[in-house]
Every structure is written in C-alpha cells, then in structure tokens.
Amino acid sequence: MVCLTVTAVTMTNEFEFGPKMRVLTEKQRAFVMAMVEFPNQTHADAARMAGYSDAGDGCKVRACNLLQDKRIVEALQEQAGKKLWAISLKAASRLERLLDSEDDVVALRATGMVLDRVGHAAAQNINIHQHVTDESGKVILDRIQALSEKLGVPVRQLLAKPAVPVVDVEFSEVEIEK
User: Fold this and answer.
1) What domain range includes position 74?
2) In a 3-state reduction of DSSP, which class is residue 156?
3) Is 54 a member of any domain?
C-alpha cells in the first residue's frame, strides 16, 4: 500500500489563472470561479458570492450583464476546460480499475473505451446512398416538352397562365324594411 502526503501549495494569480482570467477584475474573477465551482446555483447567487451589491435585485442585473461580456464567457470556458482536464485524471483512474473488473462485460467495455480513445477504434463502414436529380432549367424544359408530346398539348398551352373564367351575373337591389 502506497501512502501519499499532499501539502497545500500557494499559487500566485500569474500561475493559477490563464490569460482569459488575468484580464478580468477581481470581482469578475470571483464571479467566474463561483459559476464554475458551484454550477447548481443561480447566476445572481454567483454575483452575490463575488461581492456584487444586491440592492434592488442588483445581482440579477449584474449577472445578466456579466454573462453577456465576451471576456467573462471566454474566462468561463477557460476555467471549465481546466476543471474538465483535472477530473479527466480521475476518470482515467476509474477506467483503469474497470479494466481489471471480475465482470467480463464491464472489463470488455472498459477495454473498448480505452482503445477508442487511443486511436484503435473498431473499423466502421458508413454507406451513404444519395439520389441526385438535376433541377436545372434545361432539364425542366426538356421534361415539359416530353409531357407536351405525351399529352398532345402544345408547350405554350402548358406554360400559359390558366384563363380565369368570366362569369356573368345579374343582380337587383332589394330594400329591407326596418
């Protein structure tokens, strides 16, 4: 059994934060960190945790404004990416343990996952069947000509607008007593 002793390491902002976080103010950084570390809270709660004033629902408005700022969005992506990378080590460790599972189905699935991710995925054949129809003007005109000959109707008559029938109507006024 191996025992590891981990001591706390103090990091400066220059080391801890990436370039997207460094351009933010301290409160903006705190907002981003609150959003990443406590994803189930409301955006207003993240603004409150970052130290923004909540007078008159101010945190709701502030959070809305912050989330529309491109720098904040980029910093959120940067921090979320760092967090995903960090937990990927834990995921890899878990997957490694699953490889040694007593359950052959679990071990086989874990093996497949590892092989897929290191570039040895099973070969896949994807067949795409596509029917292409030429919808160009010449093809359409040729089709109209063929229909004209088949039906015995002149092409001009097929292409002409249908005539609107004229209806003669007679009417007379009727007075209604009130």
Assistant:
1) 13-96
2) helix
3) yes
> For the segment 22-58, what is each residue's pLDDT rounded down to a tens digit?
999 999 999 999 999 998 999 999 999 999 988 888 8
102's CB contacts (< 8 A; 6+ apart) are none
What is the number of structural domains in the chain?
A: 1
Q: Are 36 and 49 in contact (CB under 8 A)?
A: no
Opening angle at CA 65, ends 59 and 71, nearest 5 = 120
How would DSSP label each residue in 158-174? HHSPPPPPP--------
- pLDDT one-digit tens code per residue, 86-117: 888 888 888 888 988 899 999 989 888 888 88
Start-end of H helices in 17-136? 19-22, 26-37, 43-49, 58-67, 70-99, 104-117
Cα R_g (the chain), whole angstroms: 36
**Single pTM value for the model:** 0.52
Whether residue 60 is contained in a domain is answered as yes
